[in-house]
Amino acid sequence: MMKKSMLALASATVFASSLAQAAIQEGTDYTVLSKSIPQLQQNKVEVLEFFSYSCVHCYHLDPILLKHSKSFAADTYLRTEHVVWDPSMLGLARIAAAVNASGTKYQANPAIFNGMFEQKANLGDPETFKSWAAKQTSFDSAKVLAAFNSVNNPIDAKRMQDLTAQNGIDATPMLIVGGKYRVKMRDFNQGMQVVDELIAKVRQERGMQAAAPRVAPKSIGAAIAKSANR
């Protein structure tokens, strides 16, 4: 995980047991937040990720999490918020806000992470990002740039900064289910299993009926991104 102090990479571990054979346990697979985080949609189960485009662990988790979120039932949605530990991170938070607002997470995130870690582009600088984004073809760059240049974009980034501070978010990636359960990830596949079991736990606690699988739209592209980012 990337901590506030930007610690070096932790070595990967292998999860040997199967959660299909043993129920998740508090303290081992998840912890309960001392202060819950309000969901954006109260009638559904929220899977909230705090992440950073500068976090290499987020880079590796992103394709796994986005793919896994496509299997969420209709009563569950993925929400992503960029951490802002200091003002220098507001540029990246603005990118995340633009991606969220334009509904292009599935197309844009792979390119943005690639730009950061493979191309070594300083995308946290607004002018560099705008120049870089204008050249991209793997996502709707015009839509992302329109959102990035909107009046609301800096406001959304500042909201992410406030959210980071108010909830004491000190590491990334961090997954929180139902606004109250923080996933303890020993590896990413185990983490996805814990997410699924916590979704079921929240659903049971709230007396929600078992939800039907999400129906994928017939068209691809923006329709998929919009549905997945609800």
Automatic annotation (TrEMBL):
Coiled coil: none
Record-linked InterPro entries: DsbA/DsbL (IPR023205), Thiol_disulfide_DsbA (IPR050824), Thioredoxin-like_sf (IPR036249), Thioredoxin_domain (IPR013766)
Localisation per UniProt entry: Periplasm
The entry's keywords: Disulfide bond, Periplasm, Signal
UniProt cross-references to SUPFAM superfamilies, sorted A to Z: Thioredoxin-like
Every Thioredoxin domain range: 8-207
Main location: periplasm
Signal keyword on record: yes
Residues making up the signal peptide according to the UniProt record: 1-22
Gene Ontology CC entries for this record: periplasmic space
Superkingdom to which the source organism belongs: Bacteria
Cysteine pairs bridged by disulfides in the record: C55-C58
Entry's family note: Belongs to the thioredoxin family.
Name the record gives this protein: Thiol:disulfide interchange protein
